[in-house]
Design brief:
The chain is mainly α and 500 residues long. The chain contains 23 helices and no strands.
Length: 500
């Protein structure tokens, strides 16, 4: 299918590009890294609510969930080792991404995704056969290494391979696969929780091998990006790949833009030091704060522990898993909304609308819990319980079409080539750091703050709104190598950081 052109550096020529089959398939294959990441998020929350899993690895938590009146409803799952099971993956990802930056730059996006797939396979096997908590957490740590490498390489791969006018939509394939992975994990947990014999959780964990293999095979099949090939000195191969993915012969204007950017990139000996240069501070600051704000919405607290949260509110075990499936489905459908709107409505509109929706839904959840869920109450009424599920879905939907995908899209498209791998690494590092903090602290925070945990997150949403209004620029339909001239030099605040 042919597509319209877009302006090059000078604004007088156009880059020809079709939406080719090669681009679509490459993006789908690469984005399976998100499928694996999402499956890990969903599985951890589901298995930690399964009695057989708790009895084997966390007997104290199991006893508290089975005996009424021992602990407050808000505190039954407050256990540091249980939280470490979830958070260890993100701590490992945090460290791995620092190494992944150099690998992505020196070996390319393709090889980095392949390494990620191998980590995922090894971690899945260890988790599936684990008989001790130590082996279980070692498996999670290896999975975390896979997450660090995948989150480093995949968003950059997607941004670099996509035609400008649909870059946002194709990049969101990564986030869409994360949401699909979460949904699949919730459905799998729902079925495996019913298996008698206490081994259902092992099936849930072992099935992660499917997306792990998909990513590994995908990384073997796809071509590396023209930007990466040219940056590493393979100009002829880079130009050939550019012709292949654009579906046209006349790729010289875009090719010259990439060559020019790669020459600047080659002059940079220390990418992380280069990030601190004044002209790189706008995308760096925005990349860091997007990751902080993304986690401080509270989304991962809900997605990690959705079944646990619903159990806390008094839902029966099956009902809590079923409710988690509903929120997972809403997550997927809402991410599709972003795919269709991000390159039409733009990034900023989606972020601002979501801030309003997230604030309202979290305030309503906090008020309901404050009025209706006491420390030792048995359950919510059916009507109030449904209202909580609706509000959780409202919150999840707004995040899924905004801060979820755009938190990865904007950093991957706004750094210049010489700082792109290092910038993405800092973004992933920050994301994993705050994901780790939330995963490790949420159940304890819920125990101490009770319903106030949702008011805490809603206060952060207010801060995010102001940040979006004043400091996030619109980047839709801007060629990836033209961000400096067409975005940063024209922004009311960030233009002061641009050197002549």
């Amino acid at each position: 299918m042919a597509g319209g052109g877009f302006a090059s550096a000078g604004g007088n020529t156009e880059f020809e590009a079709k939406i080719t089959f090669t681009v679509i398939i490459s993006c789908i294959m690469a984005a399976t890294g998100g499928l694996m990441f999402g499956y890990d998020i969903g599985i951890s929350g589901g298995v930690t609510s399964m009695p057989s899993f708790l009895q084997k690895f966390f007997p104290d938590v199991y006893r508290r969930t089975q005996e009424h009146g021992i602990d407050s409803n808000y505190c039954k799952y407050d256990n540091q080792n249980l939280q470490l099971f979830t958070s260890s993956l993100y701590l490992a990802a945090l460290v791995a991404t620092l190494f992944a930056s150099g690998v992505t730059r020196k070996l390319g996006r393709k090889q980095t995704m392949l390494i990620s797939g191998v980590f995922f396979i090894i971690g899945t096997v260890l988790n599936a056969v684990a008989n001790t908590l130590v082996l279980l957490i070692i498996g999670r740590i290896i999975l975390g290494c896979g997450v660090g490498f995948a989150n480093q390489a995949v968003p950059v791969f997607l941004s670099e391979i996509a035609p400008t006018r649909i870059r946002g939509a194709l990049n969101i394939m990564f986030q869409l696969n994360i949401t699909i992975g979460i949904l699949i994990a919730n459905i799998v947990n729902w079925f495996t929780a019913k298996i008698e014999g206490g081994y259902g959780w092992r099936i849930s964990v072992a099935l992660a091998g499917i997306p792990a293999l998909m990513l590994t095979v995908g990384a073997l099949i796809v071509n590396d990006t023209p930007n990466s090939l040219i940056e590493r000195g393979f100009e002829d191969e880079g130009k050939a790949v550019l012709k292949k993915i654009r579906g046209v012969e006349n790729v010289d204007p875009e090719f010259q833009d990439i060559v020019k950017a790669s020459k600047v990139a080659k002059e940079v000996k220390n990418p992380f030091s280069n990030l601190l240069k004044r002209h790189n501070r706008p995308p760096l600051i925005i990349a860091i704060l997007l990751q902080v704000f993304q986690q401080m919405t509270g989304i991962n607290a809900i997605m990690f522990y959705a079944p646990v949260l619903f159990n806390t509110l008094g839902f029966q075990h099956d009902a809590s898993l079923y409710s988690a499936v509903i929120t997972g489905a809403v997550n997927v459908l809402s991410t599709l909304v972003s795919v269709f709107l991000v390159d039409k409505a733009g990034r900023k509109v989606l972020l601002l609308e979501a801030c309003v929706q997230m604030f309202v839904s979290q305030m309503v959840i906090g008020i309901i819990l404050g009025l209706k869920v006491q420390d030792y109450s048995d359950s919510l009424s059916k009507g109030i319980a449904m209202l909580v599920v609706v509000m959780v879905c409202t919150f999840v939907s707004s995040f899924a079409w905004s801060w979820g995908p755009l938190g990865w899209l904007i950093p991957s498209e706004t750094f210049p080539l010489e700082a792109r791998s290092a910038g993405q690494s800092v973004a992933v590092f920050t994301n994993m750091l705050f994901t780790f903090i939330i995963a490790q602290a949420f159940l304890s925070m819920m125990c101490h703050l009770k319903f106030g945990i949702f008011l805490f997150f809603s206060a952060w949403v207010l801060v995010m709104t102001l940040f979006t209004v004043f400091l996030i620029p619109e980047t839709k339909n801007i060629p990836i190598e033209e961000m400096t001239e067409k975005v940063w030099r024209r922004h009311w605040f960030w233009k002061s950081y641009m050197e002549d």
